[in-house]
């Protein structure tokens, strides 16, 4: 009985070929719809106003900030040409108090962090105006290369007096209040930054993906396809898909645990795809399944069906614990014992307990890799014939991927590539490269800021 219950739980995270194809088809439909609509609750396909990729020859010194779901990074970026950069970067944790406070407090804090960076690099501003590129890892409705209205943020953020306001004004008002002569010359999304910065060093890059606390993707589209674009004429445009919000057509294979996570989130019904694959939620999926398993005596039978207080709290089981468990290749999975003893005070696990925890963790992690691969395939299909040439035997297409899940979760890149091979076939998949793209936010923002400041779109 308990074995059957356990297998039923794990099986919910195993996707069929039909489910994978439904993800590809559904996302493709939403990508097309997003080219003409601006509903912030769906894939918005935001034009970045960036019309070409860098050459690798760009040079200059620019400030950059990268605001993500967990940290703010400030950087002085020296573009050296030949695909080379010099970067001085500082990282600051964004506290929960800041995330749920006022917009003014947030942007004053960003200005303080920028001032600290200038002190670190001993950059004497004098009366000079410093140019900054900004990577903003949240939805904005871009209206120019350096302007965009803030849309729904997600990722635990609930700032007052920010929605609908222009990010350039919010930032520069903060700089002015702190006495900094810094001007925002470019605003990009983190995924656009990943695409631009990785193309600086790897020219075959056509897609950028973020897979960390949250997830998103950017790709290059024919400008003629983007009916809602009202800017200067161009042949192509980098689009910020906001694919985290995919799923409105109910084609996502949600388990009861996915639905539980969505129900208690700040914005239920928003970013369902992100809640199934990204770092903020993977550990919570495991925790919710463990709670069910414990209550049904399908695991940790010595607890008598009672869930310990330490496992009862939302987000108590970190995605980091999953990485630790998946990194252990020993037959008896001793790392499971260490995780539960150290972090939850639970001892006395049997060999079967350890194996079942490992199998559950592996299933949740593998589903994330498969769903991410399916979404990447949808982008490849959408861009095929334009920026991507899937059937050209001489054409390599690189997908630059930034984020802790792709970089640090064991076997994730391998699982993604295996999945893409199953979907695309060996011949097509052999011409796809998945490459780690580090620090894309700051370097990408600096690249776009440099070109924008000098009078042209990238």
UniProtKB/TrEMBL annotation:
Pathway: Carbohydrate metabolism; hexose metabolism; Carbohydrate degradation; glycolysis; D-glyceraldehyde 3-phosphate and glycerone phosphate from D-glucose: step 1/4. The keyword Kinase applies. It catalyses: a D-hexose + ATP = a D-hexose 6-phosphate + ADP + H(+); D-fructose + ATP = D-fructose 6-phosphate + ADP + H(+). It comes from the Eukaryota. Its EC number is 2.7.1.-. InterPro entries: ATPase_NBD, Hexokinase, Hexokinase_C, Hexokinase_N. One of its GO terms (molecular function) is glucokinase activity. It is an enzyme of class 2 (transferase). One of its GO terms (cellular component) is mitochondrion. The keyword Transmembrane does not apply. PANTHER family: HEXOKINASE (PTHR19443), HEXOKINASE TYPE 1-RELATED (PTHR19443:SF16). Belongs to the hexokinase family. This is Phosphotransferase.
């Amino acid at each position: 009985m308990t074995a059957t219950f356990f297998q039923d739980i794990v099986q919910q995270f195993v996707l069929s070929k039909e489910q994978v194809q439904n993800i590809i088809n559904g996302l493709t439909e939403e990508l097309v719809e997003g080219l003409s609509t601006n509903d912030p609750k769906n894939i918005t396909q935001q034009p970045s106003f960036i019309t070409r990729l860098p050459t690798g020859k760009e040079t200059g010194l620019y400030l950059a900030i990268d605001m993500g779901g967990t940290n703010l990074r400030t950087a002085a970026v020296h573009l050296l040409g030949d695909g080379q950069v010099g970067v001085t970067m500082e990282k600051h944790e964004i506290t929960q108090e800041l995330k749920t406070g006022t917009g003014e407090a947030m942007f004053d804090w960003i200005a303080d962090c920028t001032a600290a960076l200038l002190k670190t690099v001993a950059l004497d501003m004098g009366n000079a105006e410093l140019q900054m590129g900004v990577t903003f890892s949240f939805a904005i409705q871009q209206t120019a290369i350096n302007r965009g209205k803030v849309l729904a943020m997600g990722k635990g953020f609930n700032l007052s007096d920010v929605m609908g306001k222009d990010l350039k004004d919010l930032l520069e008002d903060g700089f002015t209040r702190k006495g900094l002569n810094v001007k925002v010359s470019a605003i990009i999304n983190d995924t656009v930054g990943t695409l631009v910065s990785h193309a600086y060093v790897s020219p075959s890059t056509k897609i950028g993906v973020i897979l960390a606390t949250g997830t998103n993707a950017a790709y290059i589209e024919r400008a003629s396809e983007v009916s809602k674009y009202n800017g200067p004429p161009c042949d192509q445009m980098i689009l910020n898909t906001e694919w985290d919000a995919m799923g409105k057509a109910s084609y996502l294979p949600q388990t009861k645990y996915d639905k539980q996570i969505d129900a208690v989130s700040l914005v239920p019904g928003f970013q369902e795809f992100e809640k199934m694959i990204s770092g903020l939620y993977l550990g919570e999926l495991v925790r919710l399944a463990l709670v069910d398993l414990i209550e049904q005596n399908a695991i940790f039978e010595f607890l008598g069906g009672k869930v310990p207080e330490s496992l009862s709290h939302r987000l108590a089981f970190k995605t980091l614990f999953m990485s630790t468990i998946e990194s252990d290749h020993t037959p008896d999975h001793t790392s499971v014992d260490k995780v539960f003893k150290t972090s939850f005070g639970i001892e006395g696990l049997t060999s079967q307990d350890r194996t079942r925890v490992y199998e559950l963790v592996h299933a949740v992690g593998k589903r994330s890799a498969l769903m991410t691969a399916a979404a990447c395939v949808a982008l490849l299909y959408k861009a095929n014939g334009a920026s991507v040439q899937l059937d050209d035997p001489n054409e390599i297409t690189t997908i630059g991927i930034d984020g802790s899940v792709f970089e640090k979760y064991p076997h994730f890149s391998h699982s993604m590539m295996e999945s893409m091979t199953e979907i695309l076939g060996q011949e097509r998949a052999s011409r796809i490269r998945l490459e780690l793209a580090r620090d894309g936010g700051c370097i990408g923002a600096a690249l776009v800021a440099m070109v924008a400041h000098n009078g042209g779109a990238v």
